[in-house]
Specification:
This protein is of the alpha/beta class and 336 residues long. It folds into two domains: 173 residues, Quinone Oxidoreductase, Chain A, domain 1 (Alpha-Beta Complex), CATH 3.90.180; 132 residues, Rossmann fold (3-Layer(aba) Sandwich), CATH 3.40.50.720. Helix content is 26%, strand content 26%. The chain contains eleven helices and 17 strands. The strands form four sheets. Strands 3, 4, 5, 8, 9, 16 and 17 form a seven-stranded mixed beta sheet that branches. Strands 12-11-10-13-14-15 form a six-stranded parallel beta sheet, sandwiched between helices. Strand 10, helix 5 and strand 11 form a beta-alpha-beta unit. Helix 4 crosses helix 5.
Amino acid sequence: MRASFYQGNRTFTTGTAVMPTPAEGEALLHIRRVGICGSDLHIFQGHLDHRVPKGNTIGHEVLADIVSSPDPAFVPGDRVVVEPVLYCGTCRACRMGANYLCYHLKVLGVDAPGGMQEFWAVPTHRLLKVPVSLKDDDAALIEPLAVATHDVARADVKNGDAVVVFGGGPIGCLIALVCRHRGARVKVVEINPHRLEMLKNLGLDTIGPDQDTIKVVKDWTGGDGADVAFEVSGSPEPVRIITELVRVWGTVSIIAIHSEPVAVNLYPMFGRELKMHGSRLYTRGAWEESIRLVSSGAINVAPLVTRRIPLEDLQKGMEEALGGGPVMKVLVDLSK
């Protein structure tokens, strides 16, 4: 079967791998779609070499068909998405109910082999069924939408809140859409002109590179500041200013992976008694909510899909996603 392998030094190669043999409790999957996400771009750039072994097969945003399964809840032909979190169940994080932050966490497609291959063996308890009404491309965005629903829940976004999202890529865009669905007022800060246009086409208000973000937010909120600000850009500049545009007792949520330490203005943390937290993965409840939001049509994810590529073009897809062009979400199509 075909598979893609991470070779380090911004290089992926496509080659032949041994057909997986499912272990006890595992289903054999035929992969249909795999999304390229921000974490994959960090892998490509070498930022996660301490976690991703050379020769590993990445990919954790996966839609697949069941080929075989020991669990009667999943029968051949069922479409499923993969919750790619492996946890010990016994450490303090797991006992607290935060198994997705397990002290011994393994993420399929990062620390362990993932979905950029034609067939994949995965524990059945990591699978969720996809409604038959959903198109493949839409279903392939359930994982990033689960990230967004978890992020918004962590920040406790409420109806009427003023929310600022730094970064209008796939996760930032989805966070904005989930916040809007909750009744919040949202502005997305973005510098890429192509993404700015995509965001506007989705009906989202934006703050572009030619605007003073702090002034825009203060004017928008009558001087109070935003209720919640999400940092999804991964750039140092938003981190430096993010605490300055949040109201008293407001919330700053750090979503992006920052590969290097960055400066943050802590005085407003003290002066306004702000709350700052991180948000990393997701709960099973976030996955279930994500499926409901997509299948009900409450969140329209279809416009985010920029293009589909074959597995052999993964290297090119990574380069294009980093190139700043008209790219939002690239899906690898293994269905043929």
